[in-house]
Structure formats: C-alpha cells, structure tokens
Design a protein that fits this description.
The complex is a heterodimer of chains A (about 290) and B (about 120). Chain A contains ten helices and no strands. Chain A is mostly helical and about 290 residues long. The interface between A and B is large, with 44 and 41 residues.
C-alpha cells in the first residue's frame, strides 16, 4: 500500500506540477477546464498504449526505441511550451487588456489550446505509463489488489491536490503579473524538457555526453527527494547532468528568452523612445 | 523557421550515431526478483561502457541511477543496453525503480591500479 502510494504520488506530482502551471498560464482561454481534461484523457490513453506496447517500443531501432520515443515527446513538449511563451510575449499585452475589459470572453490563439492539450497529454502519458508498469509489476508480484488500489488512489489524490494548489496559487496573481510569472516558469520547464530529451539520446550514444557528469549536487538536493523531483519537473534538475544536457539547457533558455524579448516589442518601444528623445533634443536645439 | 532548423539538426544528429562508438567496453548485468547480479560491477575509468541489462523476471524493471543520470525500463524476459561514461573513479549507485530495495553499485577504477594489462 505504502509502495503504491509513494510511487503513484511521485509520478502524478511530476505531471501535476507541469499541468498546474500550463493551466494557470492560459487564463482567459475559453473552456480551459475542458481542454485540460481532454489532455489528461489523451495522456491516460497514451500511457496505457505505451505501457502495453513497451516491448515493441523498446526493441525498435536496435533496442533504442524507448529513448528515441522519450526524446521525441519531451522535445515536442518543450517546443510547444517555447512556442506558447513566444506567442504570449507578443500578444500577452493585448490579451491582458481584453481580459480586463471583457472578462473571460477572450478568444486566445490556437497556440494556447494546442500547447495546453499537447503538454498535458505528454506529461500525463510519460508519468502515467511508469505508474501503469509499476502497478502491473506489483499486481503480478502478488501484492493484494485492494491495498494496491487504496494506495494508488491516495497517491493520485495527493498529486492532483499539489497540482491544483499550484494552479490556484498562480491564479491569484493579478493578470498582468500572472503572464510574466507563468512565462518565466514555463521558460524553465521548456529548457528542462529539451535538455532531458537530449539526455535520452546521450544514453544510447546517439549524441556525445561531452563530459558525462559536470557536477554532482546529490548531497545538496537528491534526485529522489520531493524537492529534487519538483525541480526536475519544473526546471529539468538532475543531480549529475552531462555537459551536453547543461549546454542544451542553457542554449534553449537563452534562445527562448531572447525570442520572447524581441517579440515582446520592448526593443521597438525602447527604440521609439530613443528616437523621440533624439527628435526632442533636435527640436530643442534648433 | 528557427524551430524547423533546430528540428532538422536533431534529425541529422540521429542519423550519425555510429561515429561515436569507438574504444568500447561491455559489461552484462542481470536483474533477478530480489537482486542485481552482480550487485557490484567493476569497470575501468575513462572508458565508454555499454551495459547489457538482462531482465530474467517475468515483470518489467527499471534500471535507474541518479549518479549515472540514466533510466531505462527493461520489460520482463528481455535484454536491452545503454551507454555510460567515460567515468571518473568512484562509486555509482543504481536501483530497480519498479522493485523497491533492489540496488547495485558500479565501481569505477583506474585500469593501471590493479591490472597492468588492459584486462577488463
């Protein structure tokens, strides 16, 4: 019972943190709850398919199928988050204005819907397939089904509560700040997912590690601790990353942040201000 | 556009894995119901190592290690492999994530320390 509770809680927590953030980040999107449920349903279906077809996936590409699959879905989720962030950098300002005047009757871009459903589905599928495999192993190993079911349901409930608390907490932030805060968190999640995806390709030798272990911070934050697990889900934390992983993390972070900054129009506004100031000086001088 | 470029770079990288597989060392690890065999694997330092993981159980196991930064599910009755290293000398713990309490350790040693020749 305790075993099932802990593993289900741990896996659900990872997915729930991501879903909590992305759900909060699309405030003003009509039918938000329905999209989240759609994503969860697709994710659960995907998790069962992945768990059932694991043998097939594993032996695809000379035994490298699992890693290629994980890398593909993590990179896809990371790119969706990046895309959403860059979109929000460009349109967040007008969205905030509309939200303030029109309440929730705002039609956001399709980028938000795709991101919300896609990222939710991928997070639930990745963690859900682990849960399915673990529970299968427990049942087949002779653990009583009643205690297993009880533990799993408690773990599931616990994980969902944490995700919901995160969502509710973020949702209390005033709308203008909310998009900034969620944008920063999503930036970290995206960089972490892209780096984690690439690490799977290092594991099968498709990409070089460059340096297999740049540092070891497990004495500080262990990968198994809840802080470590949460930081893993929200920022791609792993106690002993490869240089390739670190470089991809940094490159992703800089690229996404850079695109967010240039698309936000802050540069243009600054340029305009400089131009206006120059014009004023010129006029003042003549 | 930029995303397209990044994606195609990834796909290109996927097509050229063979170039990396030089200077290899291979070890075998067996997963049983109550243990890894051997539970201590000794491997040379500064070498890329392929671990062949043979799961003799009827159930899936997950080879996982935070020290090695690796995780891989091995379905029951199958053999899969993954790469680690080159590693610095030391101890690297691993465990079966689906079978709590089943753990093992990889001990990495400088090849010159104990054996003068390149004996694995």
């Amino acid at each position: 019972m305790i075993g099932a509770l802990i593993i289900v809680f741990r896996e659900v927590l990872e997915a729930a943190l991501v879903v909590g953030v992305v759900a909060a980040a699309v405030k003003g999107l009509p039918h938000r709850g329905r999209h989240v449920l759609t994503g969860i349903a697709i994710g659960i279906g995907g998790a069962i398919l992945v768990a059932a077809g694991l043998g097939v996936i594993s032996h695809f590409a000379a035994g490298h199928g699992q890693e290629i699959f994980q890398a593909a879905v993590l990179i896809a989720a990371g790119l969706m988050l990046a895309w959403h962030n860059i979109y929000m950098a460009k349109h967040g300002r007008e969205l905030t204005r509309k939200l303030k005047t029109l309440g929730s009757e705002v039609v956001a871009g399709s980028a938000s819907i795709t991101m919300l459903i896609g990222v939710t589905a991928i997070a639930v599928m990745r963690e859900g397939s682990e849960v399915a495999l673990f529970l299968y192993a427990l049942v087949a190993g002779g653990t009583s089904q009643a205690s297993l079911l009880g533990g799993s349901l408690l773990g599931l409930a616990g994980g969902v509560v944490v995700g919901f608390v995160l969502f509710a907490g973020l949702s209390r932030i005033p709308i203008k700040r909310l998009f900034q805060v969620s944008g920063v968190i999503i930036l970290f999640i995206a960089a972490g997912m892209l780096a984690h995806g690439v690490q799977y390709l290092v594991q099968i030798g498709y990409l070089p590690a460059l340096i297999p272990h740049v540092w070891d911070s497990s004495f500080l934050i262990s990968g198994r601790s809840y802080v470590g697990i949460s930081l893993g889900a929200l920022a791609g934390y792993t106690p002993s990353p490869s240089l390739m992983q670190v470089l991809v993390w940094m490159a992703s972070f800089i690229a996404i942040a850079g695109l967010m900054f240039t698309k936000s129009g802050r540069l243009d506004r600054k340029r305009n201000r400089t131009k206006a100031a120059a014009l004023q000086t010129e006029q003042g001088g003549s | 556009m930029r995303m397209l470029a990044v994606t195609s770079a990834f796909l290109l990288a996927l097509l050229a894995p063979a170039a990396l597989a030089a200077d290899n060392h291979s070890v075998t690890l067996t997963i049983k119901d109550d243990s890894f065999t051997p539970s201590t694997l000794t491997v040379p330092a500064d070498t890329r190592i392929e671990i062949e993981i043979h799961n003799t159980r009827a159930l899936p196991s997950e080879f996982e290690s935070f020290d090695l930064n690796r995780e891989k599910v091995v379905p029951g009755g199958t053999t899969l492999s993954l790469w680690i290293g080159p590693l610095a000398p030391g101890k690297y713990k691993f465990f079966d994530d689906f079978n709590p309490g089943v753990t093992g350790v990889i001990v990495v040693e400088k090849p010159g320390n104990k054996t003068p020749n390149k004996t694995p």
